[in-house]
Amino acid sequence: MSTDHRHDFDVDPRTARHLHQLLATEQVRGRLPSVAAGIVRDGTLVWSDAIGTVDGRAGGVAADTDTQYRMGSITKTFVAVAVLRLRDAGRLDLSDRFDEHVPSSRIGAATIAQLLSHGGGVQAETNGPWWERTPGGDWEALAASPVSQRFRAGRRFHYTNVGFAALGELLARAHGEDWYEVVRRELLAPLGMTRTTTRPAGKAAQGLAVHPFADVLLPEPEHDAGVMAPAGQLWTTVEDLARWAAFAGGDTGDVLSPDTLAEMYEPHTVVDDPGQPWTTAHGLGWQVWNVGGTRYAGHGGSMPGFLAGLRVDVETGDGVVVVTNTTSGLGPVGPELLKVFVEREPRTPEPWHAAGDPSVLDLVGTWHWGPSVSTARVVGGHLVLGEPGKARGSRFAPAGADEWVGLDGYYTGEPLRVLRSPDGTPTHLDLASFRFTRTPYDPAADVPGGVDEQGWR
């Protein structure tokens, strides 16, 4: 077992032993040739471990956190971030049709946002031989095959590897160089991810299939997928992938703004499995999960001979990465490792200090929308009206003198204005045309439609 302690946080040895036990048990249960995992907190890899050998043989070279594995579709998150950087630079709009940037294909009607969120209706796989096991060609050959749309753009979720090949081509044309060079220069190099490559380099695990009825192995092929590479070709290590998990948890450095990352996590297309509750969706290149009200973001990955997973708690930034060199057999050990870690290593709350702004005290207290009652508070610089997450409760961020903007639920992005009497006393709140008054139906507060002159009776 190898456990990393790279900042002031130390994992309790009992927690480390329990995490090791979970990973070792999963390696045996799933008959995984090797499996490696890591936990991230506060932008740092705080625990890591590896079990098994790179070739699946007893006495072979032991896997470790610097062993490369294919990350599969986690590759898509790198492509997505590179596309959002183009958007932030003003070089494209997410509502642009794909053919505005890459013309002459049958998927051009899908927007960039729809391709990122698997909502463009584009076919899932190529028309030729299984691209994950055969060398790939270029964009012109793929477009001429021809690839097309299975559904009307925007109609529904339909996972598409072809769509991310298209986005890789978009990156290449926008920058005048291969998509991986864009990712390497703009993302990997600034984040120090020197062990993330398109082909195995240095110590790397052999991709393997394990026979379903016998303890024997079959090597899986490794190749250059060509134009399909942006859908799942990158190789990485636990240490490098943990840095990407830290990025996903909010430690974006100068690579991406936190606001853009949050935008990427907004659900666009829901994964609608018949008979199952909606818990999974896709944002802009990221999978997002709602587990009992806790929001997670990340991605899974699979290629012949490899499986991988990355998941972070969007609110806390705590995250987990798992990689293994087998075609099938990995259970949900990643989420279980993260759950156990969080339960056994709870975060210590920051001490409370009085740091409020007394100038907004005249806004706190009871307000009324019609006969309903809401309480206004100021928390962490936000005006909070009602209870966020319940009914239309929302937080509001300051946007100017007596101007606020909604951050949650129904009022997200909507304006709240404070109206005052000549002496400066707040008379009412105008929230997206709804009037909140200090007393129910205050006739002096310009209630829309007026107030019955005879008043309450």
What does this entry look like structurally?
With 457 residues, this protein is α+β, with helices and mostly antiparallel strands. The chain has a domain at 361-445: Beta Barrel (Lipocalin), CATH 2.40.128. The chain has nine helices and 20 strands. The strands form four sheets. The protein has an eight-stranded antiparallel sheet, sandwiched between helices. Helix 2 crosses helix 5. The radius of gyration is 26 Å and the shape is globular. Mean pLDDT is 95; it is low at 1-7. It comes from Terrabacter lapilli. One of its GO terms (molecular function) is hydrolase activity. Residues 357-438 form the DUF7586 domain. Residues 24-329 form the Beta-lactamase-related domain. InterPro entries: AmpC-like (IPR050491), Beta-lactam-related (IPR001466), Beta-lactam/transpept-like (IPR012338), DUF7586 (IPR056008).
Q: Layout of helices and strands, plus pairs?
A:
Blueprint (H helix, E strand, L loop, with lengths): L12 H17 L4 E8 L2 E9 L16 E2 L4 H14 L23 H5 L22 H5 L17 H15 L3 H13 L16 E3 L6 E3 L15 E2 L1 H11 L9 H7 L4 E2 L9 E3 L4 E5 L2 E10 L2 E8 L5 E6 L8 H12 L20 E5 L2 E8 L2 E4 L8 E7 L2 E4 L8 E6 L5 E6 L2 E4 L20
Antiparallel strand pairs: 1-2, 1-12, 3-6, 4-5, 7-8, 8-9, 9-10, 10-11, 11-12, 13-14, 14-15, 15-16, 16-17, 17-18, 18-19, 19-20
Helix pairs in contact: 1-9, 2-5, 2-6
User: What do we call the CATH topology of the domain at 361-445?
Assistant: Lipocalin
Strands ordered across the widest β-sheet: 2-1-12-11-10-9-8-7
- The CATH architecture designation of the domain at 361-445 is Beta Barrel
The N- and C-terminal alpha carbons lie at a distance of 76 Å
Helix tally equals 9
Low-confidence stretches: 1-7
In helices, the fraction of residues equals: 10-25%
Rounded to the nearest angstrom, the radius of gyration is: 26 Å
Q: Which class do the helix and strand fractions yield?
A: alpha+beta
Write down the secondary-structure element order: HEEEHHHHHEEEHHEEEEEEHEEEEEEEE
The proportion of residues in beta strands is 15-25%
CATH class of the domain at 361-445: Mainly Beta
The biggest beta sheet reads: 8 strands, antiparallel
**How many beta-strand runs?**
20
Chain-averaged pLDDT: 95
Q: Globular, elongated, flat, extended or rod-shaped: what is the shape?
A: globular
InterPro entries: AmpC-like, Beta-lactam-related, Beta-lactam/transpept-like, DUF7586
GO molecular function: hydrolase activity
Domain Beta-lactamase-related: 24-329
Organism: Terrabacter lapilli
